[in-house]
TrEMBL record:
It comes from Astyanax mexicanus. Its cofactor is Mg(2+). The GTP bound form of RAB15 interacts with REP15. Interacts (GTP-bound form) with MICAL1, MICAL3, MICALCL, EHBP1 and EHBP1L1. SUPFAM superfamilies: P-loop containing nucleoside triphosphate hydrolases. Pfam families: Ras. The keyword Magnesium applies. Its EC number is 3.6.5.2. The small GTPases Rab are key regulators of intracellular membrane trafficking, from the formation of transport vesicles to their fusion with membranes. Rabs cycle between an inactive GDP-bound form and an active GTP-bound form that is able to recruit to membranes different sets of downstream effectors directly responsible for vesicle formation, movement, tethering and fusion. RAB15 may act in concert with RAB3A in regulating aspects of synaptic vesicle membrane flow within the nerve terminal. Keywords: Cell membrane, GTP-binding, Hydrolase, Lipoprotein, Magnesium, Membrane, Metal-binding, Methylation, Nucleotide-binding, Prenylation, Protein transport, Transport. GO terms for biological process: protein transport; Rab protein signal transduction. The keyword GTP-binding applies. This is Ras-related protein Rab-15. InterPro entries: P-loop_NTPase (IPR027417), Rab15 (IPR041826), Small_GTP-bd (IPR005225), Small_GTPase (IPR001806), Small_GTPase_Rab (IPR050305).
Length: 212
């Protein structure tokens, strides 16, 4: 059967516990919002297909637990990520301060080519804001990253931020894609996951436990 997509990328959501990583993912993939905080245990993932620059991109998005005790497990997922969302909560100054630590973990464990975007989530909570938009934008600039304030509750900037990271990953891998001969492209069309990894993904899909 012909593939329903041209390329497959892995994205990762990182940030402190409670910043809204699971909610961002559930809003993007299922257009749902979970009002209660159910801490992720280890990792979960969901899939979605997007069309970016005329390319059908299947993205596998990994939602990691923000809690310290799961860090040994979650760090094992950095290695295979092509794009990473670094998420803080605009109502939590500490979650913003910890971005420095998340970036240093990414530098240590993720591939050097990984694309990163900074996200300030919960923009609907203006009355509880502790981190100014300018602070987020300055920090992102200092790391050379794009920056979005988002709201999983109101849907603000959700599609835009996921599309942008996918676009950046696509651009970063474009040369590699362009060198795949058309005959191979028809059947393969996945940058890294070939048959073995496809099988792995199918198994992962069967065990996916995302709570939304
Ligand atoms: N107001 C508001 N609340 C949000 C938003 N996104 C998430 N929340 C709330 O924040 C809490 C934590 O959200 P989660 O998505 O579970 O947080 P997480 O980052 O996945 O947490 P861990 O799994 O523990 O790492 C929940 O009560 C959500 O309803 C948002 O955009 N606006």
């Amino acid at each position: 059967m012909a593939k329903q997509y041209d390329v497959l990328f892995r994205l990762l959501l990182l940030g402190d516990s409670g910043v809204g990583k699971t909610c961002l993912l559930c809003r993007f993939t299922d257009n749902e919002f979970l009002p209660q905080h159910v801490s992720t245990i280890g990792v979960d993932f969901k899939m979605k297909t997007l069309e970016v620059d005329g390319v059908k991109v299947r993205i596998q998005i990994w939602d990691t637990a923000g809690q310290e005790r799961y860090q040994t497990i979650t760090k094992q997922y950095y290695r295979r990520a092509q794009g990473i969302f670094l998420v803080y909560d605009i109502t939590s100054a500490s979650s913003f301060q910890h971005i420095v630590k998340w970036v240093s973990d990414v530098d240590e464990y993720a591939p050097p080519t990984v694309q990163k975007i900074l996200i300030g989530n919960k923009s609907d909570e203006e009355h509880r804001r502790q981190v100014a938009t300018e602070q987020g934008s300055q920090l992102a600039k200092s790391y050379g990253m794009d920056f979005f304030e988002t709201s999983a509750r109101s849907t603000y900037n959700i599609k835009q931020s996921f599309t942008r990271l996918t676009e950046l990953v696509l651009q970063a891998n474009r040369m590699e894609l362009d060198t795949i001969p058309p005959s191979v492209e028809d059947n393969l069309a996945v940058l890294h996951p070939e048959e073995e990894e496809e099988q792995e993904i199918k198994e992962e899909e069967e065990y996916s436990t995302c709570s939304c």
